[in-house]
Amino acid sequence: MTYHLSLSPNAEADLLESALWYESRQIGLGEKFTKKVEGYLFRIQNNPLHFPLKRGNLREAYIQKFPFVIIYEIVENEIVVFAIFNTHQNPTKKP
């Protein structure tokens, strides 16, 4: 089955903000972060059931080497990414 993957405006903002923060710390690190996230998004799109259900229909994919989790839901043939959440933040802010 082919799935269409889309990022919510919040997830897009999370990705951009985090990449800019990493880039400000070390040149090239923001790009490494973005590529790592894109790799996980590709994996999610190709095998969305691989990552575990956490709350209701939401699934979470923890990113290796960066303290982030991708939170998404599968709705028919579409995967909606709600957040790219920094796990060092207060967990009560987690969507």
Keywords:
95 residues; alpha+beta; YaeB-like fold; five-stranded mixed beta sheet; 5 strands; globular
CATH fold name, please? YaeB-like fold
Unreliable sequence segments: none
At CATH's second level, what is the architecture? 2-Layer Sandwich
How would a textbook summarize the main sheet?
5 strands, mixed
Separation, N- and C-terminal Cα atoms: 27 Å
Could you give me the name of the CATH homologous superfamily? RelE-like
Average pLDDT confidence is: 91
- For the record, what CATH class applies? Alpha Beta
Could you say which structural class the secondary elements and strand pairing correspond to?
alpha+beta
Helix content: 25-40%
Q: What's the gyration radius in Å?
A: 13 Å
Number of domains: 1
Taken from the alpha-carbon principal axes, the silhouette is: globular
Question: What is the N-to-C succession of helices and strands?
Answer: EHHEEEE
Number of helices: 2
Describe the strand arrangement of the main beta sheet, using strand numbers: 1-5-4-3-2
Count the beta strands: 5
Beta-strand proportion:
25-35%
